[in-house]
Design brief:
This protein is mostly helical. Helix content is about 55%, strand content about 5%. Helix 1 (about 25-40) packs antiparallel against helix 2 (about 40-55), helix 1 (about 25-40) packs across helix 3 and helix 2 (about 40-55) runs antiparallel to helix 3 (about 60-80).
């Protein structure tokens, strides 16, 4: 919540600690793994489609591969933009939508990864409405998240207007307006401030008022 720019001397990733998580917490963590495939690594996304059940089953070899590849993706972005002046904002895919869910529902009601997963599905939907993401790729995003035992629809309790208000106070909002991370394709994310606000409202209305349509 505060944020700091102090780099660690080392990072220890001990996969044995994953045995302490219940299934819901493990799935929530996988949301951030899927994010890396979406923002910059289409090949990794395809690998996740082929191996998501192995990750849910805590297959050690699959977990090690997914963790290492995720770390390499993040390290590359952070090294290029340590203080989040541009490219590093790509790591926020799904987070502006997700933070609105977390805030609106009360922290702890939804796990962070669950909110981010839904946020990524909504970002993919908005990207498709702009004509950037194909219908087939939108379906791939939603299907992988569902197979990872993650939600793709926001809580119906949040009305579109309230959802928009919560997004507007997200920490990634600039004086000039709200930036969103959207998808040009699977593996190609962009930080966008000139998205169509009307299409955003369509995404909010469809996902919140016509779930499943």
């Amino acid at each position: 919540m505060i944020g700091a720019f102090h780099q660690p001397q080392a990072v220890l990733a001990d996969t044995d600690t994953l045995a302490t998580l219940d299934a819901r917490q493990l799935a929530a963590g996988l949301a951030e793994v899927i994010k890396y495939g979406l923002i910059m690594d289409a090949e990794f996304f395809a690998w996740l489609e082929a191996h998501i059940e192995r990750l849910l089953a805590r297959d050690t070899e699959a977990l090690v591969y997914a963790i290492e590849r995720s770390c390499r993706c993040k390290a590359g972005i952070v090294a290029a933009d340590e203080r989040e002046s541009g490219q590093r904002a790509l790591l926020n895919l799904g987070h502006t939508f997700g933070h609105a869910i977390e805030t609106g529902m009360g922290y702890g009601s939804w796990l962070h990864g669950e909110a981010v997963a839904t946020g990524m599905a909504m970002a993919a939907d908005l990207s498709a409405r702009h004509g950037w993401l194909s219908a087939a790729d939108l379906a791939r995003v939603r299907e992988l998240l569902l197979r990872a035992q993650l939600p793709v629809e926001p809580p119906p309790e949040l009305e579109p207007r309230r959802f928009g208000e919560l997004m507007a106070v997200d920490k990634k909002a600039l004086d000039s307006g709200l930036r969103l991370v959207l998808l040009r394709a699977i593996g190609e994310a962009v930080v966008c401030a000139d998205y169509d606000a009307g299409l955003l409202q369509q995404t909010l209305a469809r996902r919140l008022s016509m779930t499943g349509s």
